[in-house]
Amino acid sequence: METNNKPEPPSESKAPPNGRIARLPWWIREIISSCLSCRQTGAALLEYLNSTPEFQTFLANGSAPAPLTEADLAEWREHGSPEWLGHQETVAACRAMDSEVAAVSPPGSQPLTERLAAWVAVQYAAQGPRLRDSSANRETFWQRLREFCSDISMLRRGDQNAEWLSIERQRLLLEEKDSLLRYKKKLTLGLEMMLDQVKNNPKAAEAFQAFAKEARGTFDNIEGAP
Question: Which of 38, 52, 58, 190 has the least CB density, counted as fewest CB within 10 Å?
């Protein structure tokens, strides 16, 4: 008798790696993870979830919804909740960094990369005196200072590259604006010449003037356009 050694296909009813809670919408997972982080008891949380119709709707999978169990919570604690906590720590770190940068930066919106560079500069400024105080001898101090200066130089090169890109972007915008203004002047001159050809026909002149107005209107939003 032959033995079928082919692996069985995975069951469609099998839960994903993080369990049944992972199938719930993100806002429900947020509630569960937040409650777990506040050390709310599993029994109280399960009672709340299993008695709320909105949650039961998402638990249903083509059949009568089964209530969440302690095993579901345990699986989420092990796999899903740590990811949520890591995300919360990242958000908190970004907010703290933003506060530090805002204290030493002028007001105004900045790209994230610029704010990160400013944050790094703040850290280096804070570590400078500590570097001097922690060095046991002058040789070690100068070695660390050279490494310190190398890092600062790379940071400044990044600042200079960003400034160069900003200047180049402004130059391209000015070139584009100048090109559009020159084109508008040529267009206006051409329209005036064509209008001179049809001015003796009132209907044609009226229709052409409407067309010319619409054509010139395309350039009305250009700053400095006549």
Answer: 38
Q: Give the Cα separation of 100 and 89 in Å (integer).
A: 17
Positive or negative CA dihedral for 25, 26, 31, 35? positive
Task: Domain ranges for the chain, please list them.
Answer: 20-91
Instruction: Name the CA radius of gyration of the chain, rounded.
Output: 34
Q: Please tell me the distance from the alpha carbon of residue 24 to that of residue 20, in angstroms, as a whole number.
A: 7
pLDDT digits (tens, 9 = 90+) for 13-24: 444 455 788 878
Q: Report the C-alpha gap between 145 and 161 in whole angstroms.
A: 24
Greatest pairwise CA separation for the chain in angstroms: 103
Position 67: which residue type? P
What's the pLDDT band for 185 if we cut at 50, 70, 90?
confident
Length of the chain: 226
pTM over 0.70: no
Three-state DSSP class for residue 4: coil
The distance from CA 161 to its chain's CA centroid, rounded to whole angstroms, is: 22
